[in-house]
Amino acid sequence: xxxxxxxxQAAAFGGALRQRVYSSRLxxxxxxxxxxxGGNTSVKTVERTLLGDDVETLWVKxxxxxxxxxxERGFTPLRLDVLRRLAELETxxxxxxxxxxxxxxxxxxxxxxxxxxxxxxxxxARFIDHTHADAFVTLSNTPDxxxxxxxxxxxxxxxxxxxxxxxxxxxxxxTLWREHAHAGTTGLALLNHGLFTVGDTAREAYGRMxxxxxxxxxxxxxxxxxxxxxxxxxxxxxxxxDVAALRLEISRAAGRPMLLMTHQDDDVLAYAQRPDxxxxxxxxxxxxxxxxxxxxxxxIGRDVAAYVQASEAEFTxxxxxxxxxxTMLDPAPRVVLDPQLGLGTVGVSAAAAQAVEDxxxxxxxxxxxxEALGGWRPRPAADIFDVEYWDLEQAKLRAGPPxxxxxxxxxxxxxxxxxxxxxxxxALLRRGAAVIGLDLQxxxxxxxxxxxxLGVRVDLTDPVALAAAVERSVRAFGGLDMLxxxxxxxxxxxxxxxxxxxxxEAVLKVNLTSGxxxxxxxxxxxxxxxxxxxxxxxxxxxxxxxxxxxxAYSASKAALTQLARVAAMEWGADGIRVNxxxxxxxxxxxxxxxxxxAQRARSYGLSVEDYRRNNVLRAEVTSRDVxxxxxxLCGAAFSRTTGAQVPVDGGNDRVI
Length: 656
Prior knowledge:
Layout: H1 7-11, H2 16-28, E1 40-48, E2 54-61, E3 75-79, H3 80-87, H4 94-103, H5 117-122, E4 127-131, H6 134-140, H7 145-153, E5 157-160, H8 167-180, E6 187-190, E7 194-199, H9 202-223, H10 240-254, E8 259-263, H11 266-272, H12 277-281, H13 291-294, E9 299-300, H14 304-318, E10 335-338, E11 342-347, H15 350-372, H16 381-388, H17 391-398, E12 410-414, H18 419-430, E13 434-439, E14 453-457, H19 463-477, E15 482-485, H20 501-526, E16 534-538, H21 551-571, E17 577-583, H22 594-603, H23 608-612, H24 623-634, E18 645-648
Parallel strand pairs: 5-6, 9-10, 12-13, 12-15, 13-14, 15-16, 16-17, 17-18
Antiparallel strand pairs: 1-2, 1-4, 2-3, 4-7, 6-7, 8-11, 10-11
Helix pairs in contact: 6-9, 6-15, 18-24, 19-20, 20-21
């Protein structure tokens, strides 16, 4: 562990609560300490109420907040006297604990407090830090983990055997603290869970955490030396069909479309190709609270049906122990380990799948270190089940917003670097889709910083490069649900008599042939779309109403429209919808340079301004207008429509 504390930076965080914010962010910045909302911190202060009363207050991290980005608003102020009285109760149900903690809040608008708030409240220290440090969890998740922890820390920490988080843990830890803590005690070691450290200042509590974790790391470095890793077998070059088929099975098990992000780097391939993988991976997650993101076990290989059957059997075995009736969660895996696919992580969004990836990578690293120490032995299945179906943990998932329209789905947009293509990327991302943008321009890579966006620079007229781009797209998100064919070129106006063969062929190559190539590549993937494949072809008003001087553009877009009509007939049996948009006069695109706009206006005998609004509604049509309609065609409202041609042109008298 490297201490990230900086006195100059810390000095900018005046006051106890802001010091708490500063050191919490230091903990959250290190994924070897906490991952994705894990861990919690607190500080005790005295606050004056509106009525002038001084109240001893515990500021504890709110549930769902990420320590790496936490602010003062992420802490909930609780009456300390209430927490101390609650800790003296013999029993307290989860429902009553959550209710009492909410009632003890000094701010009704504050987030729900951490479920470990009572433990933070009773420990006699001003600042308290809690992490799930990899090194400590690895050490305690071995057959003789408790003995190793006691030998490492002596009586400097109070060792607490595993108890499910909540009131029972707070009560047990508080009892053991009163029995064993002394002036030199620096924290708690919660076996199979994590570390607590205490301090009079934020720096002291943080420094003690860094020290305790560093000592655990040192033991691992000296004693847990993994066997040399064999060079893994390289995966096949073409995996897109396998990935898309697996994603479809997982989505069916989940009851909704899911993303499947795959990774084939040497680390995960070597782990996925271990001959003892089933025995090691079947031990479970590093800490029980990881289960709400990763499920207890990964899918090893690709037999989703067998995994579902095992999940259902496990629920049947453990559910009767619950005091209240339980409804089974979807039985789909969230982690896949396969010798060819490597590591697959599943989520309703790219951010969710990335969180699963982070946890899975840390888990496989911990498991390999623990195996070198005698075995990877996290908590048994019953303990993991209790946390997975613990109402307070499930509440974290229920608290999120409902899934967006296209969450769990994947879209490819061509011509995504600017204009209509870029607007389509933005519209699809807003609706929850993962989006791959394809374009020849380097700017495509930076169109969005969203976790669900991948920009790929590719020459669409190069079939080999295009196939590689599709392969990369499927490995990134798992498949293809929506294809928006938007790329096109609009050359300067030229009469047919003056149009060269080279220019004619260049326009058709981009506007028509590249679309044909991509449709052919996309078809086997669209067939495997969990909710049915959808294609939207961005053609042109020039198809029903061509104008002079645009022969190559008009002909290429007309041919593309005809191709889409044939695809609609051929692919309907596969559940794939193919529809066409005919935009016109969308001037905020790369096609419409000032020179082209001026030339086209002259060809109609109009000024540039009149040409911009040369439609029945006298309304300017924007890229976003087209993008919104493209998304609508992909949505539920058009689930029974294919082969349609829809104008988006403000009304064109020649078309009408």
